[in-house]
Amino acid sequence: MNIFLIGCEFTGKTTLGSRIVQWQQDHMADTGKGLHFHDHFTIPNAEMSAESKASFLATTPQIKEMYQRFMIVYHMQPETYRRPDKHHMGFFIEEAVYGPLYYGYGGSEAGASIRSPEGQRTKMARAFEEEILKHCPQMVLVLMKATPEVIRERMRRNEPVYAQGGFGFGVPTRGVVQDKDVEHVLERFEQEYQWSNLRNKFTLDTSDATVDETIAEFLAKNEPFISDVDKQRIARGKA
C-alpha cells in the first residue's frame, strides 16, 4: 500500500495513520514492524529535541527552505518506492500550504492560491507528483477534512480523547496553524487536492465521525485502489 495523507492540523491524520499501519500489520503479510508514515515535513519537525526545535524556528527562511527541500527530495528517491509500503503525511503538499503562510518562503502568500506562479511551492508539488507517478503510480492521496468549528474545538481541547473516539490528539501538537487561518488553510488543502496530478484519491470528513468509523470508511474507499500484489498479501495474511 502507498498512502499519502494530507489536511489541516486536527483533522486526524496522525490518528488515522497509526490505525492504517495497525490494520496492515494485522491483515497483510510481509508488513515490517518498522512500518510508519513519514511525517518529517512540518516546521518544527516533531522528531527534533526541544533545543533543536527552538533553534530551527529561530533560523532564517533561507535555511528553513534548504532544509525542507532536502527532506522532501530525500524521500522522493526512486528506490524508496520499491518497498512494499511507502506512506507519507503532509509531505510536499503541506509544504505548498504552510510555506508561504508560515515559513517565509515558497511565494508570497498573496499569490498562494495561484496554481503555478514562478517559485511557488504549488508548482514544485505538481512536479513531485509527476515523479511519484513514474515510480509509484498506485499512490493514493487522501484529504482529511473537518469543519472550522470542529478544528477550533480540537485546538482548544488538545488533549487525549481516544476513549470518546475523538480525532487529532494523542501526540504533542506542533501548533503551526493559527486560529485566524483555519478557513484559509482548509481551503488551501482543498485546492491542492483538486489540483493534484495523483489519480487515485478520495476525501474523509472527520467532523462527526469516530476513529473506528473513519478507518472503516478509509478501507472501503481505498479498496478499489488495492493492487493485485497487495490483494495477495491480504490473502496470505488471512492464511
How are the SSEs ordered, and which strands pair?
Blueprint: E1 3-6, H1 13-27, E2 37-38, H2 50-57, H3 61-74, E3 87-89, H4 91-103, H5 121-135, E4 140-145, H6 148-157, H7 182-195, E5 200-205, H8 211-222, H9 228-238
Parallel strand pairs: 1-3, 1-4, 2-3, 4-5
How would you describe this protein?
Mean pLDDT is 86; it is low at 109-119 and 159-173. Helix 3 (61-74) packs antiparallel against helix 4. With 239 residues, this protein is of the alpha/beta class. The radius of gyration is 18 Å and the shape is globular. It has one domain (3-238): Rossmann fold (3-Layer(aba) Sandwich). 32% of the residues are buried. The longest helix has 15 residues, at 13-27. The chain has helices spanning 13-27, 50-57, 61-74, 91-103, 121-135, 148-157, 182-195, 211-222, 228-238; strands at 3-6, 37-38, 87-89, 140-145, 200-205. A five-stranded parallel sheet has the order 2-3-1-4-5, with helices on both faces. 47% of the residues lie in helices and 9% in strands. It contains nine helices and five strands.
